[in-house]
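Reproducibility note. Readers wishing to regenerate the assembly model reported in the main text can use the exact inputs given here. Chain order matters: entities are listed in the order in which they were concatenated for prediction.
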Amino acid sequence: MTTIYDVAARAGVSPATVSRVFNGGNVSPEKARAVRRAAEKLAYTPNRAARALRRQTSDVIALVVTDIENPFFTAMARGVEEVALAAGFSVVLCNSDGDLAREARYFDIAIAEHMAGVVLVPAEPATDVGRLVEHARPVVTVDRGLPLAPVDSVVADDLTGGRQGTGALYDKGFTRVGCITGPRGAETAEKRSGGWREVFAQRSPGSDPREYVVHADYRVNGGRRAMADLLALNEPPDAVFVANNLMAVGALEALHQHGLRPPGFGMAVVGDVPYAPLALTGMDVVPLPARLIGATAAQVLLERIRGDSQPVRTIVLRHELPELENGAAAGS
Amino acid sequence: MTTIYDVAARAGVSPATVSRVFNGGNVSPEKARAVRRAAEKLAYTPNRAARALRRQTSDVIALVVTDIENPFFTAMARGVEEVALAAGFSVVLCNSDGDLAREARYFDIAIAEHMAGVVLVPAEPATDVGRLVEHARPVVTVDRGLPLAPVDSVVADDLTGGRQGTGALYDKGFTRVGCITGPRGAETAEKRSGGWREVFAQRSPGSDPREYVVHADYRVNGGRRAMADLLALNEPPDAVFVANNLMAVGALEALHQHGLRPPGFGMAVVGDVPYAPLALTGMDVVPLPARLIGATAAQVLLERIRGDSQPVRTIVLRHELPELENGAAAGS
DNA sequence: TTGTAGGCGTTATCAC
DNA sequence: GTGATAACGCCTACAA
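Running the prediction on these inputs yields the following structure tokens for the assembly.
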């Protein structure tokens, strides 16, 4: 391990001078050059553990997601990266897998490694960011909020998304649009199905919404089972609104088994299903601005890291893709 | 920030004793209990920066991939996680995006944060792990090797995969199987197309292989263009072997535009195309054992971290899914 | 502009 | 078994 002392010795200066060269202090050009040359020769890398210990903060931010295999979250990660890297921060991705214990463990790491902040997809509404907050680590949640915690969040306009997706199907002439949504209590699931319910009540007034909505787990298999359930109804729907990308894949499979497929059987889904363009033929997609959500969250986080102390806010992004600049904000 | 001193004071012992409680030293049961209670009450988390500084190592391992949005790599990440978490390590995912500079930056972080080791998908054959090696950080490459570097690697049997995929198409009765492979010089691309070439030469003896293989960039758009090129030949192929999942998606799109699709037009692909089950109808998949590759790499890395100093080795995994235990090893 | 020195929170080496 | 104490490598007053 070559240290600041080695560099100092080789450059004929004091360790303090070396430190100043790397942190922008006042150093004469000649000495600065000598230091840089020495550092180069010795392949010196500042020891971040020491630096973090001393400075009580690092330039790494953590992105904690609930499912690293969900393309929505990886797309979001790209957005976070773009902004963070441009600002000189590095991003590390942590997979909580929706598990509170694993999530908490990553929080501990973030604290103990003095990470600068956390962009978080909460594993559950019960997610506890108290430790993070106590340690003054900025947190921004994405995709869903944490209403009880004093942290910013960036979410999509899920209610409108639900309305749009459902409305599009009715507008195409389908007469009874079912709904496959996420777990009870999950914010995005409630909002998206809420949008569906409004439209359903209006367009299928004779039917009971409770019969035509089924909750699943936001995963492929859940979507398959849910679709099968809908098809087994006495009066099955002729179209379905699906609240996330993975469940849509499962639903397609289930339809397929019954010899059905879009566009004959209507389907609208919230969020892109990447890498499945053909499967999407005939499907309506309410695009989730995944990258934008990530980028916006990173921007907010960076502001907080830099000391911004505005009141906590929730930023709601439209499903249409606006320019990064307009990120419309709604009070919370 | 609550420190070991705070805990010590509250428990009425010395800081050294507190440290011993957390690191398995000899401490009397009563004092140990007192320490634990105090730590609990104070919500004490060991400061990892300090610990890493002192111990010169941490229990975090980095997984550096070239494309965080490629499901193959995220599936691999799951394998790495499973093994690492079970051994008490945490995993952070870093996205090099195939860029040498970004990759190098993450190496620096790994070194400077004293991470225990790195599982790496090399951005290029030119990837330089010298710094990592100098600093005695174990490295295991996955998916592709780094022949010039003294590091272990875990790869799939790509040559066989190429043969299998291609052979399956001929066996189905197709008569001229084209090939869409990855960038020139990329190990997996060369091997997979090498397997194709063998079979092609044998089964389509009249045709020039050079006409029927096209190199692309392992991405969706590249696959689309490549497929279009193949279809534009004077004597276009009636089937295609595609060297990775993303390009297969692009190829499907291109076929679609020409009114073609599997199984009418033959297609075999190396690696699953998750979330696209319907699009796969009629495709042959040579499954890449993504998770297993990750898990095996993590195991090897852990051994190295624990001081194993066996000669460097390359582990080649079959495309069939063997039990984790048999991870067949081939000398390197 | 430059150098000296103290401390960030831990762990490990000593004595006791 | 337990407690001082000296590093680990860096940054930043403070002095010069």
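We highlight two features of this model. Confidence is low (pLDDT under 50) at residues 321-332 of chain B. Residues 13-17, 20, 25-28, 31, 50, 52-56 of chain B lie near DNA strand D (CB under 10 Å from a C1').
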